[in-house]
Amino acid sequence: MAILSWVILGLIAGILAKWLMPGNDGGGFIMTVLLGIAGSFLGGFIGSFFNLGSTGDFSISSLLTATSGAFLLLFVYNKLIK
User: Fold this and answer.
1) C-alpha atoms less than 13 angstroms from C-alpha of 79 in its C-beta half-sphere
2) DSSP 8-state code for residue 34
3) Model confidence at 2, in pLDDT bands (50, 70, 90)?
């Protein structure tokens, strides 16, 4: 159930990260969603390591760690593409 939770959080986090960092990515909506899902796993791993959010629940702290991970991956993706 935790993985499904992070996939759903990843969808939301990808949209939030794209909203926070607008611009022409070249990847479109699908790439943003995939980066959001990967970023939510990254943010969840880092958040769990630092005890900032757990991977088993849907809370504001989990959403913030997932969005932070998605934002980080989207930023790195934009720097590598351009």
Assistant:
1) 6
2) H
3) low
Buried b (16+ CB within 10 A) or exposed e, 39-66: bbbbbbeebeeeeebebeeeeeebbbbb
Is residue 48 within 8 Å of residue 55, measured between CB atoms? yes
Q: Where are the domains of the chain?
A: 2-81
pLDDT tens, 44-78?
788 778 876 655 566 777 777 877 888 888 888 87
Q: In this structure, what is the dihedral angle of CA atoms 14, 18, 23, 26, given to the nearest 10 degrees? A: 10
The predicted model scores a pTM of 0.74
